[in-house]
What does this fold into?
Amino acid sequence: MKTKKKARAYKSEIINNILSEVSPLEAYQIERRLLIAAKIDDALQTKGWGKKQFADSLGKQPSEITKWLSGSHNFTINTLAEIEYVLGTNLLVLAKR
It folds into this structure.
């Protein structure tokens, strides 16, 4: 099954203008949050899950999932690990030593 990549490919003059007004670090942080949101969305689509089913599996409200998928949420490592575990995917690539 092919997953959507719209969040990674979408370009907007408004977004570009906003990103031009922030520091390179802030722009990088925004980009990473959006990529994580896109990866979560891709994993949900692959599993055939909606926000409600995903929220239920994590003991969260669907409104919190909506916030996560907006790309504006600053995740903790524990939350990312829980999401990876439930979805059976890797959101961050970390090398084991």
Q: What stands out?
A: The mean pLDDT is 87. The helical segments are 6-9, 13-20, 24-47, 51-58, 62-70, 77-87.
